[in-house]
């Protein structure tokens, strides 16, 4: 059942009135700003003429901060395209509206805390690539939607949505408690949606790529790794490639996710912190829970592990393989490929070795295909579950190669491609394909690491280039800074947005705020000392002393002081990074 497409928000001092613009609609949502009560009234509800009017395109939900509840609404959107002639939208702007009109009941510290919490919510809302549809269920694959009953398809969008991919589920909880409000409850997806109209051999078709980022065990790169006790993997993404041609539909689904074991990799100022496997938890439990869920949702699993077979990643690779063999599940197959070793010296053509190894699995797995009359011609029996250390750069390259191979078979079956033709020979479409997958990589990487993906020059052009290496170096340096000095805030923002941390009502009165935690004085003083010592070293170099040896002594002294201080900071690196203060604040190195 569809959600209202467009609405007007009327704002008065004591109420919000949300009136749909749909023709024939006879309902008004009234939100009491004093009591927070939600009521559904007929279109004869008296909206005061003096109310401030705003056009909105959906309600993201409500969130409670220190000052009380806030309403979050979508104020701008842009159309991405259509799936089954149903519009898909990207959120371009939102607005956060406070219920209360005064903060006089709060102390100055509480007001400052509230500003920080508001900044966290706003930071998540400014994450690129939130998507929604008021009619199409973006959270389910084409195959899942087809394999359901008419009763399921007639349910409201929020009730039938796959909760793994509803990023505003926590914000919608108050609306969802009142089923009669279902036409105001809009599920929102975070990830990527690309919809392109394409042509090969003068035959028009739609090429669609959807990546659905899970909201379970969600977070940023170094603060969210491995699995939790329920088997949810960090950075878990379901990616579906869809082709629509003359009413026929084909899709191919893949998944990615962190190595499904209990492990951590906390930032500590090192470029690559050492991954640490937990020795206090039963590794096989998390692994089995994860793959039990995978098999229920997708069927047979082909694990494509792209971790290095030496160095820090090797321990993870061996532990992962050990878990597969100990499980002895004939629905799981493990394929390990040392990506960096095999493709060293920019020999990316050697990825064909991996694709050849997976060819039989891909043939057996197949893909979903439904004809225009509703007949299901093919089904997909299982998925590739691909990962590297971050499940981003290497993973996206391999997923795009597997997707291209299946796409070629689908287009031939639709007779868009001739039997002797290849997708790679279709210059215009190949450009679209490569750039869509590269955009997918960039957005997923930004959501997890804060920067675009690495290795996208290969995805976009089919070649590894020197300019691509330079761009990767730039992105890697930005990742280093963000992972060490801003990701604690980003992790807190995600935890607050998803409801992993909720603000206690007493936080405004008696409970100490976690935001007020202060670092020890020495951890504040050392960076200052290092900066002063470095500055003095530069000054001594620029301003000559009366005697050369005096200048040399000054430079050596301040240089040594700088190096000593930086060494102490580096040795105690974990104390100097930006760490989460909310839901993840109690996590320790395992």
Give the secondary structure arrangement, pairings included:
Elements (H helix, E strand, L loop, with lengths): L6 E5 L3 E6 L7 E5 L5 E4 L10 E5 L1 E8 L2 E16 L2 E13 L9 H18 L4 E3 L9 H5 L3 H4 L3 H4 L12 H4 L12 E12 L2 E11 L23 E9 L2 E9 L6 E2 L11 E2 L5 H16 L2 E5 L6 H16 L4 E5 L2 H4 L8 H7 L1 H7 L2 E3 L5 E3 L4 E5 L5 H21 L13 H23 L6 H6 L4 H20 L1 H12 L22 H22 L5 H24 L19
Parallel strand pairs: 13-20, 16-17, 16-20
Antiparallel strand pairs: 1-2, 1-5, 2-3, 3-4, 6-7, 7-8, 8-9, 9-10, 10-11, 11-12, 12-13, 13-18, 14-15, 18-19
Fold and architecture overview:
The chain has helices at 108-125, 142-146, 150-153, 157-160, 173-176, 283-298, 312-327, 339-342, 351-357, 359-365, 393-413, 427-449, 456-461, 466-485, 487-498, 521-542, 548-571; strands spanning 7-11, 15-20, 28-32, 38-41, 52-56, 58-65, 68-83, 86-98, 130-132, 189-200, 203-213, 237-245, 248-256, 263-264, 276-277, 301-305, 332-336, 368-370, 376-378, 383-387. Helix content is 36%, strand content 22%. The relative contact order is 0.10. The model has no long low-confidence stretch (mean pLDDT 92). The longest helix is centred in the last third of the chain and has 24 residues, at 548-571. The chain has 590 residues and is of the alpha+beta class. The protein folds into 3 domains: 7-103, no CATH class; 188-485, no CATH class; 517-590. The strands form 3 sheets. Strands 6, 7, 8, 9, 10, 11, 12, 13, 16, 17, 18, 19 and 20 form a 13-stranded mixed sheet that branches. The two termini are 47 Å apart.
């Amino acid at each position: 059942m569809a959600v209202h497409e467009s609405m007007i928000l009327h704002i008065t001092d004591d109420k919000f009135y949300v009136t749909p613009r749909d023709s024939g609609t006879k309902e008004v949502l009234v939100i009491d700003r004093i009591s927070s009560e939600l009521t559904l009234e007929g279109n004869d509800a008296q909206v005061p003429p003096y109310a401030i009017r705003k056009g909105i395109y959906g309600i993201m939900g409500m969130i409670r901060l220190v000052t009380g509840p806030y309403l979050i609404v979508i104020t701008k959107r842009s159309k991405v395209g259509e799936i089954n002639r149903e519009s898909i939208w990207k959120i371009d702007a939102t607005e956060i509206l406070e219920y209360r009109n005064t903060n006089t009941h709060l102390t100055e510290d509480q007001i400052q805390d509230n500003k920080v919490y508001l900044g966290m919510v706003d930071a998540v809302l400014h994450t690129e690539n939130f998507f929604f549809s008021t009619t199409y269920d973006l959270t389910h694959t084409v195959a899942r939607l087809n394999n359901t009953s008419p009763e399921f398809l007639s349910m409201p969008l929020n009730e039938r949505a796959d909760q793994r991919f509803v990023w505003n589920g926590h914000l919608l909880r108050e609306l969802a408690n009142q089923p009669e409000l279902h036409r105001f409850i809009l599920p929102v997806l975070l990830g990527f949606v690309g919809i392109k109209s394409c042509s090969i051999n003068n035959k028009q078709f739609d090429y669609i790529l959807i990546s659905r980022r899970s909201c379970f065990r969600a977070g940023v790169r170094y603060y969210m790794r491995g699995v939790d006790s329920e088997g949810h993997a960090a950075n878990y993404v379901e990616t579906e490639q869809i082709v629509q041609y003359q009413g026929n539909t084909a899709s191919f689904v893949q998944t990615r996710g962190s190595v499904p074991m209990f492990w951590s990799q906390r930032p500590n100022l090192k470029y690559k912190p050492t991954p640490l496997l937990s020795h206090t938890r039963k590794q096989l439990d998390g692994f089995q829970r994860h793959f039990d869920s995978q098999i229920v949702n997708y069927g047979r699993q082909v694990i494509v592990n792209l971790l290095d077979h030496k160095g820090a990643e090797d321990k993870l690779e061996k532990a992962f393989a050990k878990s597969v063999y100990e499980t002895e599940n004939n629905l799981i197959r493990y394929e390990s490929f040392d990506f960096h070793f095999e493709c060293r010296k920019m020999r990316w053509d050697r990825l064909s070795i991996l694709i050849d190894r997976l060819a039989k699995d891909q043939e057996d797995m197949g893909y979903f295909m439904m004809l225009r009359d509703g007949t299901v011609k093919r089904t997909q029996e299982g998925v590739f579950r691909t990962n590297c250390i971050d499940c981003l750069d290497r993973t996206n390259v391999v997923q795009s190669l597997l997707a291209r191979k299946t796409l070629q078979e689908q287009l031939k079956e639709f007779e868009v491609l001739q039997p002797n033709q290849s997708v790679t020979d279709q210059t215009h479409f190949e450009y679209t394909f490569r750039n869509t997958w590269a955009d997918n990589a960039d957005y997923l990487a930004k959501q997890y690491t804060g920067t675009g993906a690495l290795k996208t020059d290969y995805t976009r052009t089919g070649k590894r280039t020197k300019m691509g290496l330079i761009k990767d170096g730039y992105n890697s340096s930005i990742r280093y800074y963000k992972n060490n000095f801003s990701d604690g805030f980003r992790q807190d923002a995600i935890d607050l947005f998803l409801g992993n941390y909720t603000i206690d009502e007493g936080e405004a009165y008696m409970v100490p705020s976690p935001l007020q935690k202060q670092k020890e004085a020495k951890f504040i003083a050392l960076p200052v000392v290092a900066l002063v010592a470095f500055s003095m070293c530069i000054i001594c170099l620029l301003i000559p002393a009366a005697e050369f040896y005096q200048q040399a002594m000054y430079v050596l002294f301040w240089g040594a002081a700088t190096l000593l201080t930086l060494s102490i900071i580096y040795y105690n690196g974990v104390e100097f990074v930006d760490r989460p203060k909310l839901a993840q604040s109690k996590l320790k190195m395992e």
